TrEMBL record:
<feature type="binding site">
    <location>
        <begin position="10"/>
        <end position="17"/>
    </location>
    <ligand>
        <name>GTP 1</name>
    </ligand>
</feature>
<comment type="subunit">
    <text>Associates with the 50S ribosomal subunit.</text>
</comment>
<comment type="function">
    <text>GTPase that plays an essential role in the late steps of ribosome biogenesis.</text>
</comment>
<dbReference type="InterPro" id="IPR006073">
    <property type="entry name" value="GTP-bd"/>
</dbReference>
<keyword id="KW-0342">GTP-binding</keyword>
<dbReference type="GO" id="GO:0042254">
    <property type="term" value="P:ribosome biogenesis"/>
</dbReference>
<dbReference type="InterPro" id="IPR005225">
    <property type="entry name" value="Small_GTP-bd"/>
</dbReference>
<dbReference type="InterPro" id="IPR003593">
    <property type="entry name" value="AAA+_ATPase"/>
</dbReference>
<feature type="binding site">
    <location>
        <begin position="240"/>
        <end position="244"/>
    </location>
    <ligand>
        <name>GTP 2</name>
    </ligand>
</feature>
<dbReference type="InterPro" id="IPR031166">
    <property type="entry name" value="G_ENGA"/>
</dbReference>
<dbReference type="GO" id="GO:0005525">
    <property type="term" value="F:GTP binding"/>
</dbReference>
<feature type="domain" description="EngA-type G">
    <location>
        <begin position="4"/>
        <end position="168"/>
    </location>
</feature>
<dbReference type="InterPro" id="IPR027417">
    <property type="entry name" value="P-loop_NTPase"/>
</dbReference>
<keyword id="KW-0677">Repeat</keyword>
<dbReference type="InterPro" id="IPR016484">
    <property type="entry name" value="GTPase_Der"/>
</dbReference>
<keyword id="KW-0690">Ribosome biogenesis</keyword>
<feature type="binding site">
    <location>
        <begin position="57"/>
        <end position="61"/>
    </location>
    <ligand>
        <name>GTP 1</name>
    </ligand>
</feature>
Length: 455
């Protein structure tokens, strides 16, 4: 499905190409103080706070005869607006509104394309009066921004989102997540059985193992194919890592490098299996490793290895589970499995859960679904009013996957207490079946560009 399109329009030298370059993340369009540098339509793939769309840089709109060069440029601009999902009409806040801006506004009102008004070069006090003047153009409150310095992009995101977000009824799974090999890293303390586990999965002695702790130094990646319960072949990239001891015990330079390499492997992975030694239970170092994995935004599974020789298995399992719930409060319910690398017990379950966990980690939820849930959540538990000032939460949207990341927009939402943020995150987990994968929720309270003018 093609990306939605934004056409940037405005008179010459208001900063259209500067904004285009910022949105596409490259200097594709020439930028100069001389007006009229852009002539043809230039298109690029843009990303704004996780929102993907096609952006079109157009020539400065000039009221000239269609036979002239400026006139032919204007025809290209008109075609770009006609084909776009939304027109981003830019004015120069420092220069204020000029007659050509008003002419463009009259023409845009006659088209069927929705319009978002942006007042560029609004940084500092010099742009405040131009922002106020722009309201007279009839497109509502302008987005005050600085294309050169990147200010105001969050407000631009808010303004463009209603025209660009596709509201599908069902959650989507990232196509890359379902087809690409699962990047699965095995981490843990020394001698937990990481290399033995991978050898058992591969069905061969691919990695050196032994009773000595610390045999593995480099992170080793091995491509493998797992056959699921239906016989389907699933590609996997297994990553073995060096054992991670307490930092105070890591003295040798080589071991320090090995631990750093293991941490880089976590960054590379999609799902991380923290392997515990079932004969020793859970230790503080295990919780530190788990916390690091979650902080990096990776999906986590915890596996109790050597289960075939563990004593008092039932009480051990319940004790580890209780300790995890207490020690990993930010992600309660992390899958806890029992396996035996020596016998192969539980490894098929481990792989099935790993793929299911990646699916949840890669899940995208439509804005429509999110906000239907959000309305119910607000009705059930309205936001508090710290200091007697009402917090108005307007809407929430997902800005990225892997891990699922959301932005909550509204007035003073940055003042929401941590307890209410946890209430929303836990609700997201339950409603959309994210399980225990990391879920990010950012509060975005747009600043009023006129606050300084009122002081």
């Amino acid at each position: 499905m093609p990306l939605p399109t934004v056409a940037i329009i405005g008179r010459p030298n208001v900063g259209k190409s500067t904004l285009f370059n910022r949105l596409v993340g490259k200097r594709l369009a020439l930028v100069d103080d001389q007006p009229g540098v852009t002539r043809d339509r230039r298109e690029g793939d843009a990303t704004l706070l996780g929102l993907d769309f096609r952006v079109v840089d157009t020539a400065g709109f000039e009221d000239e005869d269609a036979a002239t060069l400026p006139g032919r440029m204007r025809v290209q601009t008109e075609a770009a607006v006609q084909d776009a999902d939304v027109a981003l009409f830019m004015v120069d806040a420092r220069a204020g509104i000029v007659p050509l801006d008003e002419e463009i506004a009259r023409w845009l009102r006659a088209t069927d394309t929705p319009v978002v008004l942006a007042a560029n070069k609004a940084e500092g006090r010099s742009g405040e009066s131009g922002v106020l003047e722009a309201m007279a153009l009839g497109f509502g409150e302008p987005v005050a921004l600085s294309a050169e310095h990147g200010e105001g992009v969050a407000d631009l995101f808010t303004a463009l989102l209603p025209y660009l977000e596709r509201d599908d009824d069902e959650p989507e799974e990232d196509a890359e997540a379902s087809d690409a090999p699962l990047k699965l890293a095995i981490v843990g303390r020394p001698n937990a059985g990481k290399s033995t586990l991978i050898n058992r999965l591969l069905g061969q002695d691919r990695l050196i193992t032994g009773p000595e702790a610390g045999i593995t130094r480099d992170s080793i990646a091995v491509d493998w194919t797992w056959s699921d319960a239906d016989g389907a072949a699933r590609a996997v990239r297994l990553i073995d890592t060096a054992g991670m001891r307490k930092k105070a015990r890591v003295q040798e330079k080589l071991e320090k490098l090995s631990v750093m390499d293991a941490l880089r492997a976590v960054d590379f992975a999609e799902v991380v299996v923290l392997l515990l030694d079932g004969t020793r239970g859970l230790e503080v170092q295990d919780l530190k490793i788990a916390d690091r994995v979650l902080q990096e935004g990776r999906a986590l599974i915890i596996a109790l290895n050597k289960w075939d020789v563990a004593e008092n298995a039932s009480s051990l399992f319940n004790g580890v589970k209780a300790a995890l719930d207490e020690g990993l409060a930010q992600a309660k319910g992390v899958p806890l499995l029992t396996v035996s690398a020596a016998t192969g017990k539980g490894l098929d379950t481990l792989m099935r859960v790993a793929f299911e966990t990646r699916d949840a980690w890669s899940r995208r939820v439509s804005t429509g679904q999110l906000n239907r849930w959000f309305e119910r959540a607000l009705e059930a538990n309205p936001p508090p009013a710290p200091g007697g000032k009402r917090i108005k939460a307007r809407y929430v949207t997902q800005v990225k996957t892997r891990p699922p990341s959301f932005v909550l927009f509204g007035t003073r939402v940055d003042q929401l207490p941590e307890s209410y943020r946890r209430y929303l995150v836990n609700g997201l987990r339950r409603e959309f079946d994210f399980g225990a994968v990391p879920v990010r929720l950012t509060m975005r309270a747009p600043k009023n560009p006129f606050d300084q003018a009122k002081e």
